[in-house]
Every structure is written in structure tokens, then in C-alpha cells.
What we know:
Helices cover 81% and strands 1% of the residues. The protein is mainly α. It has a two-stranded antiparallel ribbon.
Amino acid sequence: MNELLDIMFAMEQRYQEHENDSKLEFQSTRDEIKNKNLEEKHALRMQLENTIEDLWIQFQVALKSYNETTEDRKRAFEELKMKDEKSSREIDMQMRKIQRLSEQIGQFKTKMSNTAKDNEDINTSLKEEKEKMLAHFQELKSQMNKQRDKERSKLTKLTLESNSVIKELKRVTEVGEHILRGGEICRKLEIEQEKVLPFYGSSLTEEEETEAEEAIAEPTTEPLAAMMHEYSALENFWKRYNKVLLDKMALSKERTVLTQENEQLRQVLKQYLDGISVNDEILSNPNPLFVINNRTNVQMAVPVADPRIKRPTTTVVEAAHIIKQIL
């Protein structure tokens, strides 16, 4: 019996320990599950808060977009409503006006029927006057046609003359373009002094320039002087033209002088070569190297340095000065 009691006590102790262990394990498992649930709950709460915040932002954006999109429609609705009220008032006004006009039309019809007989004589006189006006209109129309033909002939003549003038202007334009192209070509050949000072200075004194200006300012009856006044704007052009013309004349003169000098030098050289050569033709002619008592039997050419053939000094007189003196 004592053994059974011991066994039962031992089993109760064992069961009690096992129960305590199970309770401890259950408690720890329950705490772990509770902590895990709390953590998951906290994570879900954070996620839900983020989701709610995102949804709230989206809601605000959608609300703002809706307000923006419906604002124009609301404004348009208000405007249309105001227009509708205004149109209603105008319709009522126009209806009253139509009614008033209808009453006036009835009155005018009555008055027109009353005055129709009185206006028959007036209409007859107006018809006669209309016929007279029609006849006068036909006469004026014929005169206008004649005048139109006359003006057409004048216009044709003017057109022909304008075409001829246009052709002449084109010709003058071509000449001007040719002159400008020539000026551009000449510009490339100008020296630095001519590019800096394209117009030469006047050779007149101050008193002469004053007298020339006074002479130009005086009215004149001579056609040539009047023409010179009209073309006074081309004075700089004529200055350059006269300068080029004088340069051309000076170069032509210098070329002539140099040609003569070249011919003389050629003759001297030929005489010298003939003098140092020996043949029957040369011996039969006077020899320039055969000198007796400092004299030769050959007429020597005049040396280039002789003052008699020096290059002439060209005196340049401004053309404008000559014209002013003439006028």
C-alpha cells in the first residue's frame, strides 16, 4: 500500500513538474506569439498609415484636379446662366418691340391705303421725271464713254512713253553699274594716298574760293551756268575725273617723251655697235669712232640729259576754277 502511495505521489510529482513545464512553455510560447503579433500589428499599422497617407495625398490631388477641371465649367455655367437671363430679358423686350411694331405696321397700312389715291398723281409726275432723267443719263453716259476713250488713248500714250523711259532708265542704270564696276576695278589699282585722299586739294586761294562761291550763289540767266548749278552735286566726281584725265594726259606725254628718248638711245647704241664692227657697209659709211682733232664725221644724237629735251613741266589748272572764271 505504501508503495502504491509512493508511486502515486511520484506520478503526481512527475505530472506536477510536467504541468509546470507545460505551463512555462505555454507561457513563453504565448509571450512570443503575443510579441510577434504586436510587432506584426505595429508593422501593419505603419503600412496602413503610409497607405492612408498616400491615399489622402491622392485624394487631395484628385480633389484639386476636380476643382480645377470643374472651375471652368462652373464659371462657364455661371456665364451661360447670366447670358440666358440676359437673352430672356432681350426676348421679352423684342417681343414687346415686335408687338409695338405690329401695331405701327397696322397704322401705316391704314395710312398707306388712305394716301394711295393721293400719290397717283405724284407717281405719274415722277415717272415723267424718271424718263427725262433716263434720257439725260444716256447722254451723260455717251459723253463719259467718249471721255473714257480719250483717257484710254492718253493712258496708252503714257504707257508707251513710260516704257520708253523705263528702257532709258535701264540703259542709264546699266551705264551706272558699268561705271561702278569700273570704279571698283580702279579702286583696287589706287595707291594708299589716293585711297586716303581721293579728292585733290583746291589750288585756289581763300579769296579766290570766296569769289567763286559768291559767283555760284548769284542767279544767272545763261543756260550753261544754270546747268552747272543743277549738277553741282557732281563736283567731287568731276574732281576725280579731272584728276584722272590730267594723270592720263601726263602719262601720255611722259610716254611720248620716253619713246623719243628710247629711239635716241637706240640710234646711239646702233652707232656704237656700228663703230665697233668692221664690214664693207660700215666702212663705206661715216664711222662714229673715227675722231680727228676731237671731231667726228657722224652727227651724234642729242643726249638725254640735254636741257633741250628735258621732260616738260606740266602746269595743272583746276577745271572748276576755269569754269568759275568763265561764268
